[in-house]
Give the backbone structure.
Amino acid sequence: MKRQIAIFLLLIFFISPLAGFAQMRSPQNPRLGFIIHGGAGVISRKDLTPQKEAEFRKKLEEAVLAGYKVLQSGKTSLDAVETAIRIMEDSPLFNAGKGAVFTADGKNELDASIMEGKGLNAGSVAGLHRVKNPISLARKVMENSPHVMMIGDGAEKFAREQKIELVPAQYFWTKHRWDALQKIIKEEKAKNKKVSEFRNPSSQNERYGTVGAVALDKNGDLAAGTSTGGMTYKKYGRVGDAPIIGAGTYANNQTCGVSATGWGEYFIRLSIARDISAIVEYKGVSIQEAVDTVIKQKLQNLGGDGGVVALDKNGNIGISFNSEGMYRAYIDENGKPIVQIY
Amino acid sequence: MKRQIAIFLLLIFFISPLAGFAQMRSPQNPRLGFIIHGGAGVISRKDLTPQKEAEFRKKLEEAVLAGYKVLQSGKTSLDAVETAIRIMEDSPLFNAGKGAVFTADGKNELDASIMEGKGLNAGSVAGLHRVKNPISLARKVMENSPHVMMIGDGAEKFAREQKIELVPAQYFWTKHRWDALQKIIKEEKAKNKKVSEFRNPSSQNERYGTVGAVALDKNGDLAAGTSTGGMTYKKYGRVGDAPIIGAGTYANNQTCGVSATGWGEYFIRLSIARDISAIVEYKGVSIQEAVDTVIKQKLQNLGGDGGVVALDKNGNIGISFNSEGMYRAYIDENGKPIVQIY
């Protein structure tokens, strides 16, 4: 009898660490999570040639795998978010960084924001003309300044002090974005519109395509980031939702991380990202139910369009959009990249 | 018996409209509501002379009565909010409009936002140097543009097109704000601080004092607005919470209207105004409980300070702050103005 008890205790001794490990990997506890988007509402099936679609899928896969690799190496969710967004900013395919669209007066105006769920720290930049990777400047604002949001010349002055890479304005010139501007200028001239009349963008498909990412690291820390080149033909230093903490980006370790893309004005008016976090916090529903409530009910009812990608604190994925498509990719439970458009 | 029934029915006939009227005035139904603030965390009892305090009280009473009169005349909550905020913007007492504080390089940089609870429309402006009344420009952005937020030169270009009054930069020069800047420059020089080291503003009392208003009109429409001159000695085009929809300002006819004031970075990270609306929406608690939860628990725990004024859809008042004081005034149930500081 004594011997049986001894074996039993020995068994417990060896099994308990394994049980702890199993628990660590269960859905109730943090696991690595990574999801990105490359814009919503930009894709019409008839305009997207098989070749173009293949390019998008390849770049999305590259970005999602790069971010995931960062997490696997033990680095933070902030590192993963920054890494993946920089890859998309450096590609001419997306409306962020290199591929930014043109404003009405032929400039490129870039915005970005980043937030960490631990401590609710955040950084945001808007109205940039010369910063190659706005997401990295947003992170510097968060980590090396007492502020959350910086705009315009002041933000670029801070960028220089922080040794963030600046590029000549021509860096952002791409033929397809320039052609898109010329097309809209022609259309607007034909209509001879006044300011008060262009409330409904006529060529919405040309006007957005923000990028973003949400990550959950091995410490259970969430992070989210978003970067954009704004809307083609935008005027008056317009700022969309991407640099607005609570609208385009939000992260809270107690709830979820969210990055949004779409018709920015609606995302600001609804505080889309913050509302998703609030629904998870106060109603205790799943992340998928929370994103669907905000996108398919509230945004839809108000007349806006776009979508979000999200991760809850356990790494569960939430994806919702009411536009024709949303470029997105995530890492599934087996560690495999899944790339989707429609 | 027949006669008794007839008298009873007659009684019902006469009483029922009165009952209806009583119900209309009960807390369950919209009544006129108006509340303003002139900044939190700015007041130390030892610094506020009786004469200065009398000036603040007089101006707060003037602003709250002017806004309330607008509501009584049958105009909208937006009109009331704009009217009261313009009065405070035109006074050198508050850190908004005329009384705006100076940035580190001796400029005045103004921000404002406004939102209506009906339809969730919003307008916001940031980084202005020459607009006399930023709250009126924010309203024009909401009503006459397709955008929610405009910044810097672009916003001022829009102001010119909308015939919004522009003033020379000298208009914003006031001796007490200039002296406050010189004092901080001297302190900072003595400390020889680096960017990364000034996360905790040392002279917080000098650094904020935003104004704001929330109104409920006879149609049951809520509106909220906020206007600020930022923080003394701010750098790098820093933007605080005042122009951020969801942080400094939010209004939703289904829940409440909120205007905030305080250490802006914390208000952005918590999406203070939006969170109060979410708590009312999802938890169904009173407006006072909602504002206390966000200010006295969440903001306090994160280490920030400031306060909010709010009205729910029935006109009930919510006031909360964790700073030493908050300049504020509201109209009580008898239509009388109440002015408070501590």
Chain B touches chain A through 53 residues (CB under 8 Å). Residues 17-29, 195-203 of chain B have pLDDT under 50 and may be disordered.
